[in-house]
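Render this sequence as a predicted structure.
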Amino acid sequence: MARRTTIDDVARLAGVGKVTVSYVLNGRADQARISSETAERVLAAARELDYRPNGLARALSRQRTDTVAVVFQYADYFSASSSFINEVMRGVCDGCVEEGLDVLLHTKPALDPAAEADALTDGRVDGVLMLRDADDPTLSAVLARRFPTVLFFSRSAHPGVPFVDCDNFAGGRLATDHLIGLGHRKIAFLHGSVNSVDSAERGAGYRHSLQAHGIEFDSRHVLNFASATDDPRPFIELMTGPDRPTGLFVWSDDVAFACLRILSELNLDVPDDVSIVGFDSSPACERVTPALTSVNQPVAAMARAATKLLAQKLRGPVDDSAQQIVFPLELDVRASTRAPHPKAAKLTNL
């Protein structure tokens, strides 16, 4: 096996010291007042020997890797089939390209928060983008190390933590107001993780809208459906029971897509038997049948903004007013919602 070329080999061939080679190959020849003739000799020697500097060693020498980590909630959160995650990564990658950064995906389950925080802050990355619940212990451990961190699609209970999020409360109201405006009175809310601040705020917006329109809140119409892979039986029981809702507000598009499949298997027509509103308005909303009405959360733009905010923090202090960014929302009305069908409304009132 051929021996790997080292910086010593380049220095020997060029007739200079290792420090000179390091300055030249790191683009700092002018700073070290190295003549153009000497610099060219070093570059020629490196080309002749096909020398490739060790990227990690170079990063350690200047205490920067120009790499950021994206930290997901748990390993199976990252899925190629998730429209939400696809948009998150599109925005992160766009932001990294613009800021000259690389990205590392961290999907290891948080079995030991302290160990996970150690791994994230061991020098392989300069900062982290955290897509975790607000009370996540790893988030707390990373923040305790004063490591550059930006939370996105959530908010932290820790004061002053930079985040990029949307107005989830307003989003919950938008979705519910739309269904009520169409004439629905029995509206269910399918929420995410009990630890998700975003899901809770969307639920608060849902309840506020019901109250504002004089509709009594019914706890039987609130159901946990955090992931498209969750057990569908509680949802099936809700939709086949005597008090079936005519409208559904679902906390995420990915779960709403799962609901569409289940409703089809139950021979319930959308939107004739039940109207459904999702959250994110991902591109996939246009590809399902019927096209999904959804609250437009600009996921890619938010992820890009979070990445650029982290890049700013890595360059130096960021003004407090620029560290917490809240995106406004709007509703994209498509084919999955309409006024309650007289037959469906009659059945749910039996």
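Summary. The chain has three domains: 7-53, 67-166+299-328, 168-296+332-348. The first helix runs from residue 7 to 14.
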